[in-house]
């Protein structure tokens, strides 16, 4: 393998990792938007709402 192939492979792996991280972050944010009130009320009933 030459240097350009290694560089292309690293770029591809970095791109895949970035897309996976962005997808996970987006899904977590969407979940928080959909269920944020229920999460907060659950913490409030357990006495842990001060964390927010």
Oligomer: single chain
Beta strand %: under 5%
Secondary-structure element order, N to C: H
Mean of the pLDDT scores?
Answer: 87
Which runs of at least 5 residues are low in confidence (pLDDT < 50)? none
Question: What Rg do the Cα atoms give?
Answer: 20 Å
Write a structural description.
The protein is an all-alpha fold and 52 residues long. 85% of the residues lie in helices and 0% in strands. It has one helix and no strands. The longest helix has 44 residues, at 3-46. It is rod-shaped.
Give me a quick take on this structure:
The protein contains 1 helix and no strands. With 52 residues, the chain is mainly α.
List keywords for this structure.
52 residues; single chain; 0% strand; rod-shaped; mainly alpha; 1 helix
